[in-house]
Structure to design on (209 residues):
């Protein structure tokens, strides 16, 4: 299904915009076009998986300036920049600032579609990762401070006996806390706990309490 995926097009050349809208529509992708960077910034809404295809050289705000504006506003959207000038230095600046790719005009339609599909996949993966981190944070909030300390030591590879020594509690108490951690985090193995830890956003915890 592609209806929830959007490709934004920013180019002052109406012919280029229309051509890209037609191309994307031919493969079932929704496209929204804008005649300037300022128009895009005013109309952009974060409503789902998306990417942005923008010309580099435009009247007013250029593609690179648009990229800087997006970064300044904390808008994370995969950006593909187009240029008719083969400007390598511009390409390097764009890639260093976070652009996912760079393509010269006139471009091959299949090459453009491949870049767009890769950008959309990258955005979908980023959004999924963010969702998982939020869900994991909600599960972690179920843990008591003591359970959280046990959890951190389990995923660090410590055995129950080592955890007991570090925390000055009995092995039996460690086992009880460990079982509660497994249940609250909906994990069936230590491997799942480790995977959970790796996909969780960093949380500030204290050793007290």
């Amino acid at each position: 299904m592609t209806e929830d995926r959007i490709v934004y097009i920013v180019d002052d050349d109406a012919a280029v915009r229309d051509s890209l809208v037609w191309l994307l529509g031919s493969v079932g992708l929704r496209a929204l076009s804008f005649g300037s960077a300022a128009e895009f910034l005013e109309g952009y809404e974060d409503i789902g998986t998306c990417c942005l295809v923008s010309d580099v050289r435009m009247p007013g705000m250029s593609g690179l300036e648009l990229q800087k504006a997006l970064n300044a506003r904390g808008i994370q959207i995969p950006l593909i920049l187009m240029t008719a000038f083969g400007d390598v230095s511009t390409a390097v600046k764009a890639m260093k600032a976070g652009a996912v790719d760079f393509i010269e005009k006139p471009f091959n339609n299949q090459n453009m579609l491949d870049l767009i599909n890769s950008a959309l996949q990258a955005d979908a993966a980023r959004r999924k990762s963010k969702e998982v981190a939020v869900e994991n944070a909600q599960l972690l909030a179920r843990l008591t401070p003591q359970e959280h300390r046990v959890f951190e030591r389990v995923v660090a590879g410590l055995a129950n006996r080592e955890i007991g020594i570090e925390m000055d509690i009995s092995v039996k108490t460690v086992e009880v806390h460990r079982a509660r951690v497994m249940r609250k985090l909906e994990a069936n193995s230590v491997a799942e706990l480790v995977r959970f830890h790796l996909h969780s956003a960093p949380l500030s915890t204290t050793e007290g309490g």
Summary: The chain has nine helices and five strands. The radius of gyration is 24 Å. Confidence is low (pLDDT under 50) at residues 203-209.
